[in-house]
Amino acid sequence: MKGLLYLEDGTIYIGEGIGKKGTSVGELVFNTSTTGYEEVLTDPSYAGQVINMCYPFIGNYGVNNAHKESSRSYARGIVVKSICDTPSNYLSQKSLNEFLKEENIVGVCGLDTRSITKKIRNFGSMKCVISNEDLSIHEIKEIMLSQGKENLVQQVSVDCTRHIKGEAVKIAVLDFGVKKSIIKDLTKRGCEVTIFPYNSFYDEIMSINPDGVLLSNGPGDPKDVLHSVQEVKKLIDKVPIFGVCLGHQILTLALGGNTYKMKFGHRGGNHGVYDIEKDKAYITSQNHGYAVEAESLKDLDVVVTHINLNDRTIEGIRHKSLPVFSVQFHPEGAPGPTDTSYLFDKFIKCAGERL
Protein backbone atom coordinates (compact mmCIF):
# COMPACT_ATOMS: atom_id res chain seq x y z
CA MET A 1 0.00 0.00 0.00
CA LYS A 2 1.11 3.55 -0.67
CA GLY A 3 2.38 5.71 2.19
CA LEU A 4 2.46 9.49 2.36
CA LEU A 5 4.02 12.17 4.54
CA TYR A 6 2.52 15.66 4.16
CA LEU A 7 4.24 18.62 5.82
CA GLU A 8 2.49 21.82 6.85
CA ASP A 9 4.54 23.81 4.30
CA GLY A 10 3.02 21.70 1.52
CA THR A 11 5.95 19.33 0.97
CA ILE A 12 4.88 15.79 0.08
CA TYR A 13 6.91 12.59 0.39
CA ILE A 14 5.52 9.37 -1.09
CA GLY A 15 6.66 5.87 -0.15
CA GLU A 16 5.28 2.54 1.02
CA GLY A 17 2.91 2.13 3.95
CA ILE A 18 3.91 0.03 6.96
CA GLY A 19 2.43 -0.59 10.39
CA LYS A 20 -1.16 0.20 11.25
CA LYS A 21 -3.32 1.23 8.32
CA GLY A 22 -4.50 4.72 9.10
CA THR A 23 -3.81 8.43 9.18
CA SER A 24 -2.53 10.59 12.02
CA VAL A 25 -1.33 14.13 12.72
CA GLY A 26 1.74 15.03 14.74
CA GLU A 27 4.89 17.07 15.08
CA LEU A 28 7.58 15.81 12.72
CA VAL A 29 10.92 15.30 14.52
CA PHE A 30 14.09 13.33 13.84
CA ASN A 31 16.02 10.85 15.97
CA THR A 32 19.72 10.15 15.40
CA SER A 33 19.90 6.76 17.19
CA THR A 34 21.18 3.79 15.18
CA THR A 35 19.50 1.26 17.50
CA GLY A 36 16.86 1.36 20.23
CA TYR A 37 13.77 1.81 18.07
CA GLU A 38 11.67 -0.25 20.50
CA GLU A 39 12.56 2.10 23.37
CA VAL A 40 12.09 5.18 21.20
CA LEU A 41 8.64 4.16 20.01
CA THR A 42 7.44 3.43 23.55
CA ASP A 43 8.98 6.48 25.24
CA PRO A 44 5.99 8.58 26.42
CA SER A 45 7.98 11.74 25.63
CA TYR A 46 7.23 11.06 21.95
CA ALA A 47 3.49 11.50 22.48
CA GLY A 48 2.03 13.52 19.63
CA GLN A 49 5.09 13.15 17.40
CA VAL A 50 5.94 11.49 14.10
CA ILE A 51 9.50 10.18 14.33
CA ASN A 52 11.84 10.35 11.35
CA MET A 53 14.67 7.86 11.97
CA CYS A 54 17.96 9.16 10.59
CA TYR A 55 19.63 5.75 10.46
CA PRO A 56 18.64 4.26 7.09
CA PHE A 57 18.02 0.61 8.04
CA ILE A 58 15.61 -0.02 10.92
CA GLY A 59 14.29 -3.28 12.38
CA ASN A 60 17.19 -5.65 11.74
CA TYR A 61 17.22 -7.15 15.26
CA GLY A 62 13.45 -7.33 15.64
CA VAL A 63 11.40 -6.65 18.78
CA ASN A 64 11.08 -8.66 21.99
CA ASN A 65 8.95 -6.37 24.22
CA ALA A 66 11.66 -6.47 26.90
CA HIS A 67 12.70 -2.89 26.25
CA LYS A 68 9.32 -1.18 26.15
CA GLU A 69 9.44 2.08 28.13
CA SER A 70 5.68 2.20 28.75
CA SER A 71 2.69 -0.08 28.46
CA ARG A 72 1.96 1.21 24.96
CA SER A 73 3.24 3.60 22.33
CA TYR A 74 2.08 7.22 22.23
CA ALA A 75 3.97 8.11 19.04
CA ARG A 76 1.81 9.21 16.11
CA GLY A 77 3.94 7.65 13.42
CA ILE A 78 7.34 6.54 12.18
CA VAL A 79 9.25 7.31 8.98
CA VAL A 80 12.14 5.10 7.82
CA LYS A 81 14.28 4.75 4.73
CA SER A 82 14.25 0.95 4.82
CA ILE A 83 12.57 -1.53 7.16
CA CYS A 84 13.77 -5.09 7.80
CA ASP A 85 11.07 -7.76 7.60
CA THR A 86 13.44 -10.66 8.40
CA PRO A 87 15.11 -9.73 11.70
CA SER A 88 18.02 -11.78 12.99
CA ASN A 89 18.46 -11.95 16.76
CA TYR A 90 18.00 -14.86 19.17
CA LEU A 91 15.79 -12.68 21.42
CA SER A 92 13.55 -11.44 18.62
CA GLN A 93 9.87 -12.28 19.00
CA LYS A 94 8.46 -10.33 16.07
CA SER A 95 9.37 -7.95 13.27
CA LEU A 96 9.21 -4.20 13.68
CA ASN A 97 6.31 -4.06 11.21
CA GLU A 98 4.34 -6.51 13.36
CA PHE A 99 5.15 -4.40 16.41
CA LEU A 100 3.92 -1.23 14.67
CA LYS A 101 0.60 -2.90 13.92
CA GLU A 102 0.22 -4.11 17.51
CA GLU A 103 1.00 -0.64 18.86
CA ASN A 104 -1.30 1.12 16.35
CA ILE A 105 1.53 3.15 14.85
CA VAL A 106 1.14 4.44 11.30
CA GLY A 107 4.35 4.13 9.31
CA VAL A 108 5.87 4.97 5.95
CA CYS A 109 9.09 3.55 4.52
CA GLY A 110 11.06 4.17 1.35
CA LEU A 111 11.42 7.91 1.97
CA ASP A 112 14.59 9.96 1.77
CA THR A 113 14.99 10.38 5.53
CA ARG A 114 18.22 12.37 5.06
CA SER A 115 16.30 14.94 3.03
CA ILE A 116 13.57 15.08 5.69
CA THR A 117 16.16 15.53 8.45
CA LYS A 118 17.87 18.35 6.56
CA LYS A 119 14.52 20.04 6.04
CA ILE A 120 13.73 19.91 9.77
CA ARG A 121 17.21 21.23 10.58
CA ASN A 122 16.76 24.13 8.16
CA PHE A 123 13.16 25.06 8.91
CA GLY A 124 12.49 23.52 12.32
CA SER A 125 10.16 20.82 13.58
CA MET A 126 6.78 21.12 11.90
CA LYS A 127 3.29 19.72 11.87
CA CYS A 128 2.65 16.83 9.50
CA VAL A 129 0.15 14.20 8.45
CA ILE A 130 1.33 10.62 7.99
CA SER A 131 -0.96 8.24 6.13
CA ASN A 132 -1.00 4.86 4.42
CA GLU A 133 -4.63 5.16 3.36
CA ASP A 134 -5.99 6.17 -0.03
CA LEU A 135 -6.67 9.86 0.69
CA SER A 136 -6.56 12.92 -1.53
CA ILE A 137 -4.32 15.87 -0.73
CA HIS A 138 -7.46 17.91 -0.02
CA GLU A 139 -8.55 15.34 2.57
CA ILE A 140 -5.05 15.34 4.08
CA LYS A 141 -5.11 19.14 4.43
CA GLU A 142 -8.53 19.01 6.11
CA ILE A 143 -7.28 16.43 8.59
CA MET A 144 -4.29 18.63 9.47
CA LEU A 145 -6.47 21.71 9.97
CA SER A 146 -8.88 19.80 12.21
CA GLN A 147 -6.17 18.88 14.73
CA GLY A 148 -6.30 21.18 17.78
CA LYS A 149 -4.01 21.69 20.77
CA GLU A 150 -3.70 18.70 23.10
CA ASN A 151 -2.70 18.09 26.71
CA LEU A 152 -0.03 15.51 25.96
CA VAL A 153 1.10 15.07 29.57
CA GLN A 154 -2.44 14.16 30.58
CA GLN A 155 -2.42 11.42 27.93
CA VAL A 156 0.73 9.74 29.28
CA SER A 157 0.56 10.27 33.06
CA VAL A 158 -0.88 7.71 35.47
CA ASP A 159 -4.46 8.48 36.52
CA CYS A 160 -4.04 7.28 40.11
CA THR A 161 -1.22 6.81 42.61
CA ARG A 162 0.90 3.66 42.27
CA HIS A 163 3.22 2.24 44.92
CA ILE A 164 6.30 0.02 44.62
CA LYS A 165 7.76 -1.41 47.82
CA GLY A 166 11.39 -0.88 48.76
CA GLU A 167 13.73 -0.95 51.73
CA ALA A 168 15.69 2.25 51.21
CA VAL A 169 14.67 5.89 50.80
CA LYS A 170 11.11 6.84 49.95
CA ILE A 171 10.85 8.57 46.56
CA ALA A 172 7.79 10.32 45.14
CA VAL A 173 7.77 10.41 41.33
CA LEU A 174 5.68 13.13 39.73
CA ASP A 175 4.70 11.42 36.49
CA PHE A 176 4.73 13.59 33.37
CA GLY A 177 5.34 10.49 31.23
CA VAL A 178 7.95 8.59 33.19
CA LYS A 179 9.93 5.86 31.44
CA LYS A 180 10.07 2.39 32.98
CA SER A 181 13.86 2.59 33.01
CA ILE A 182 13.78 5.55 35.41
CA ILE A 183 11.60 3.61 37.83
CA LYS A 184 13.92 0.62 37.40
CA ASP A 185 16.96 2.76 38.25
CA LEU A 186 15.28 3.77 41.50
CA THR A 187 14.01 0.34 42.51
CA LYS A 188 17.28 -1.48 41.77
CA ARG A 189 18.86 0.89 44.29
CA GLY A 190 16.30 -0.26 46.84
CA CYS A 191 14.06 2.81 46.76
CA GLU A 192 10.44 2.71 47.84
CA VAL A 193 8.66 4.46 44.97
CA THR A 194 5.25 6.12 44.81
CA ILE A 195 4.19 7.40 41.39
CA PHE A 196 1.82 10.38 41.43
CA PRO A 197 -0.31 11.77 38.57
CA TYR A 198 1.12 14.91 37.00
CA ASN A 199 -1.67 17.11 38.42
CA SER A 200 -1.22 16.01 42.04
CA PHE A 201 -1.21 18.69 44.73
CA TYR A 202 1.59 19.48 47.16
CA ASP A 203 -0.36 18.08 50.13
CA GLU A 204 -0.95 14.78 48.32
CA ILE A 205 2.73 14.37 47.53
CA MET A 206 3.87 15.30 51.04
CA SER A 207 1.27 13.01 52.63
CA ILE A 208 3.66 10.06 52.20
CA ASN A 209 6.51 12.06 53.77
CA PRO A 210 8.90 11.42 50.86
CA ASP A 211 12.66 11.59 51.29
CA GLY A 212 12.95 12.90 47.74
CA VAL A 213 10.84 13.91 44.75
CA LEU A 214 11.71 13.02 41.15
CA LEU A 215 10.18 15.13 38.38
CA SER A 216 10.01 12.83 35.38
CA ASN A 217 10.46 13.18 31.66
CA GLY A 218 7.44 13.78 29.45
CA PRO A 219 6.13 15.30 26.21
CA GLY A 220 5.35 18.81 25.11
CA ASP A 221 5.75 22.32 26.45
CA PRO A 222 6.44 22.69 30.20
CA LYS A 223 4.25 25.81 30.19
CA ASP A 224 1.28 23.58 29.40
CA VAL A 225 1.46 22.16 32.94
CA LEU A 226 1.63 25.34 35.01
CA HIS A 227 -0.38 23.67 37.78
CA SER A 228 2.55 21.33 38.29
CA VAL A 229 4.99 24.25 38.25
CA GLN A 230 3.07 25.90 41.09
CA GLU A 231 3.04 22.71 43.17
CA VAL A 232 6.77 22.12 42.58
CA LYS A 233 7.45 25.66 43.86
CA LYS A 234 6.02 24.58 47.22
CA LEU A 235 8.31 21.53 47.31
CA ILE A 236 11.61 23.28 46.62
CA ASP A 237 12.62 24.08 50.21
CA LYS A 238 10.91 21.04 51.73
CA VAL A 239 12.52 18.00 50.13
CA PRO A 240 15.40 17.01 47.78
CA ILE A 241 14.31 17.23 44.13
CA PHE A 242 15.73 15.68 40.97
CA GLY A 243 14.31 16.72 37.58
CA VAL A 244 14.83 14.80 34.32
CA CYS A 245 14.10 16.26 30.85
CA LEU A 246 10.62 17.83 31.08
CA GLY A 247 11.10 17.67 34.85
CA HIS A 248 14.23 19.79 34.40
CA GLN A 249 12.24 22.42 32.52
CA ILE A 250 9.41 22.40 35.07
CA LEU A 251 11.90 22.81 37.92
CA THR A 252 13.48 25.75 36.06
CA LEU A 253 10.08 27.47 35.78
CA ALA A 254 9.39 26.77 39.46
CA LEU A 255 12.71 28.38 40.39
CA GLY A 256 11.80 31.52 38.41
CA GLY A 257 13.59 30.78 35.14
CA ASN A 258 12.20 30.51 31.63
CA THR A 259 12.06 27.96 28.82
CA TYR A 260 11.74 28.23 25.04
CA LYS A 261 10.95 25.99 22.07
CA MET A 262 14.03 24.87 20.18
CA LYS A 263 14.27 24.90 16.41
CA PHE A 264 14.44 21.11 16.12
CA GLY A 265 15.40 19.81 19.56
CA HIS A 266 17.72 16.99 20.62
CA ARG A 267 16.66 13.38 20.03
CA GLY A 268 19.08 10.48 19.97
CA GLY A 269 21.60 8.49 21.98
CA ASN A 270 24.77 10.32 21.00
CA HIS A 271 24.61 13.87 22.40
CA GLY A 272 27.77 15.21 24.02
CA VAL A 273 27.32 16.95 27.39
CA TYR A 274 29.96 18.61 29.57
CA ASP A 275 29.65 18.22 33.35
CA ILE A 276 31.21 21.48 34.56
CA GLU A 277 31.64 20.41 38.17
CA LYS A 278 33.26 17.07 37.27
CA ASP A 279 35.24 18.62 34.38
CA LYS A 280 34.22 15.64 32.29
CA ALA A 281 32.32 15.06 29.05
CA TYR A 282 29.65 12.39 28.62
CA ILE A 283 27.67 11.00 25.71
CA THR A 284 23.98 11.11 26.63
CA SER A 285 20.54 10.02 25.52
CA GLN A 286 18.16 12.90 24.81
CA ASN A 287 14.60 13.54 23.70
CA HIS A 288 13.29 17.09 24.01
CA GLY A 289 12.10 20.04 21.96
CA TYR A 290 12.28 22.72 24.68
CA ALA A 291 15.23 24.11 26.61
CA VAL A 292 16.13 26.39 29.51
CA GLU A 293 16.81 30.04 28.69
CA ALA A 294 20.28 30.89 30.01
CA GLU A 295 19.58 34.59 30.45
CA SER A 296 16.63 33.83 32.75
CA LEU A 297 18.90 32.19 35.35
CA LYS A 298 21.28 35.10 35.92
CA ASP A 299 19.59 36.57 39.00
CA LEU A 300 18.46 33.28 40.54
CA ASP A 301 20.03 31.08 43.23
CA VAL A 302 20.91 28.62 40.48
CA VAL A 303 24.19 27.24 39.12
CA VAL A 304 24.53 25.76 35.63
CA THR A 305 26.11 22.31 35.99
CA HIS A 306 25.96 20.85 32.47
CA ILE A 307 26.11 22.30 28.94
CA ASN A 308 25.55 20.75 25.52
CA LEU A 309 28.76 20.40 23.54
CA ASN A 310 27.05 20.91 20.18
CA ASP A 311 25.00 24.07 20.69
CA ARG A 312 25.94 25.21 24.24
CA THR A 313 22.37 24.92 25.51
CA ILE A 314 21.87 24.32 29.22
CA GLU A 315 21.81 20.62 30.13
CA GLY A 316 21.77 20.80 33.93
CA ILE A 317 21.25 23.12 36.89
CA ARG A 318 21.33 23.00 40.69
CA HIS A 319 20.17 25.27 43.49
CA LYS A 320 23.04 27.08 45.23
CA SER A 321 22.09 25.97 48.73
CA LEU A 322 19.29 23.40 48.54
CA PRO A 323 19.47 19.72 47.45
CA VAL A 324 17.59 20.53 44.26
CA PHE A 325 19.00 19.79 40.80
CA SER A 326 17.99 18.65 37.32
CA VAL A 327 19.33 17.58 33.94
CA GLN A 328 17.95 17.89 30.42
CA PHE A 329 19.32 14.54 29.23
CA HIS A 330 18.31 11.01 30.27
CA PRO A 331 20.68 9.46 32.84
CA GLU A 332 18.87 6.12 32.50
CA GLY A 333 19.71 5.93 28.77
CA ALA A 334 17.21 3.50 27.18
CA PRO A 335 18.23 3.73 24.44
CA GLY A 336 21.69 5.14 24.77
CA PRO A 337 24.60 5.22 27.21
CA THR A 338 24.09 5.03 30.97
CA ASP A 339 27.34 6.81 31.92
CA THR A 340 25.43 9.54 33.76
CA SER A 341 23.48 7.17 36.01
CA TYR A 342 25.64 8.51 38.84
CA LEU A 343 23.00 11.22 39.08
CA PHE A 344 20.55 8.71 40.56
CA ASP A 345 23.13 7.90 43.23
CA LYS A 346 23.59 11.61 43.93
CA PHE A 347 19.84 12.06 44.29
CA ILE A 348 19.42 9.05 46.57
CA LYS A 349 22.31 10.25 48.73
CA CYS A 350 20.55 13.62 49.12
CA ALA A 351 17.31 11.83 49.98
CA GLY A 352 19.10 9.60 52.49
CA GLU A 353 20.59 12.60 54.27
CA ARG A 354 17.06 13.82 54.92
CA LEU A 355 16.24 10.71 56.98
Strand order of the largest sheet: 10-12-11-13-14-19-18-17-15-16
Shape: globular
CATH class of the largest domain: Alpha Beta
In total, the number of strands is 19
Order of helices and strands: EEEHEEEEHEHEHHEEHEHEHEHEEEEEH
User: Assembly type of the shown chains?
Assistant: single chain
Helix content: 10-25%
- End-to-end separation in angstroms reads 60 Å
In round numbers, the mean pLDDT is 96
Total domain units: 2
Question: How much of the polypeptide forms β-strand, as a percent range?
Answer: 25-35%
| Alpha plus pi helix count | 10
Q: State the low-pLDDT regions, or none.
A: none
Biggest sheet, open or closed, and with what strands and sense? Answer: 10 strands, mixed
Which structural category do the helix and sheet elements fall into? Answer: alpha/beta
Tell me what the CATH architecture of the largest domain is.
Answer: 3-Layer(aba) Sandwich
Gyration radius from CA atoms, angstroms? 20 Å
CATH superfamily of the largest domain: Class I glutamine amidotransferase (GATase) domain
How is the secondary structure organized here?
Layout: E1 2-7, E2 12-19, E3 23-31, H1 37-42, E4 49-53, E5 57-58, E6 77-80, E7 82-83, H2 96-102, E8 106-109, H3 113-123, E9 126-131, H4 137-146, H5 152-156, E10 162-164, E11 170-175, H6 180-187, E12 192-197, H7 202-206, E13 212-215, H8 226-235, E14 241-244, H9 246-254, E15 259-275, E16 280-292, E17 302-308, E18 314-319, E19 324-327, H10 342-353
Parallel strand pairs: 3-4, 4-6, 5-7, 6-8, 11-12, 11-13, 13-14, 14-19
Antiparallel strand pairs: 1-2, 1-9, 2-8, 3-9, 10-12, 15-16, 15-17, 17-18, 18-19
Helix pairs in contact: 8-9
